[in-house]
Amino acid sequence: MIVFSACCVIVLVVVSPEPALAWGPVTHVALGMQVLATVITPEHPLQATLLKLPEIFLYGGLAPDIVQGRRLQSRLRRHSHNWATGFGLLGSASTPEQQALACGYLAHLAADVVAHNYFLPARFIGRFESGIASHLYTEARFDTFQAHEYRDLLVKLLKVDFGVLNQTLKHAIDSPLFSFSAHQRVFEGGLRRIREFDGLLRRLGGPDQAEVEDFGLFSHASCAAIGGILGGADSAPACRFDPMGEEIIRDAVDLRRKLQRLAKIDARARAMAREISSTMVAEVRAHLQQSPFAS
């Protein structure tokens, strides 16, 4: 049964018609912990709240992914990956717990700005010669680059009762097709099998050198984007971007197809396509190295 279940997860990742969630739950927990350790200093206005309620901040960092169905969601006014939804939670927070939840929620959106506007487009363009399955597989593997402690911390979070805060989320997010509670049960069911999924992906192979370098670069950029949001609210640089990255992902997929067509013409055209791809990815990396999310 365990082997069958793990295979089902891989199949769902490979055949999914939508772009994968580039940062998985373990990565969002890891980024949250790194921000608590490095960004939330004694001088930070949120320090007292977030260090007192770290588990709620981390849960907030998972919350935007509870409601599934990205394409249906994006048509809703209060969809989960929406700055208005995140800042609405923060603006209506009347308790420290609700404030910590909202900060975690906004942290997730800030990290997704990097994932969906930089990482995924660079991956689609940079590896245009590989199949779509390898893209989704690589994205799913990003969680396995994290230390085991973050995965174990995620499992511990599932044992905490966030019932009251879930009611806050339920009233703040529009849920397509099914109730928020139904989405939540599916989401938590997947998280409970994270160790199984993580172990399977690790057995399928470790990261190559380019992936290791990308891991550091994109993780640093994500932490910077989160720090900007927690320090500058809606004036932060990350707020200029769509957390879902729909337009830029669509453009990247379109360019990927054009590069594939160009590469099929002949050897010279293939070399040209590879040069275009390499140059564009290098520009993305160079841009992130300039710390564009610093407040």
Task: Walk me through the structure.
- This protein has about 300 residues and is mainly α.
- It is built from 15 helices and no strands.
- The protein has helices spanning about 1-15, 25-40, 45-50, 55-60, 70-75, 85-90, 95-125, 130-140, 150-155, 165-170, 180-190, 195-205, 210-230, 245-265, 265-290.
- The model is unreliable at about 1-20 (pLDDT under 50).
Summarize the model shown.
By secondary structure, the protein is mostly helical. It is built from 15 helices and no strands. Helices cover 69% and strands 0% of the residues.
Principal-axis shape equals globular
Summed up, the helix count is: 15
Largest sheet: none
Number of strands: 0
The arrangement of helices and strands along the chain is HHHHHHHHHHHHHHH
Oligomeric form = single chain
Q: Mean pLDDT, as a whole number? A: 85
| Termini separation | 49 Å
Give the class from helix and strand content and strand pairing: mainly alpha
- Rg (C-alpha, Å): 19 Å
Low-confidence stretches: 1-20
What is the helical fraction, as a range of percent? 55-70%
- The fraction of residues in strands falls at under 5%
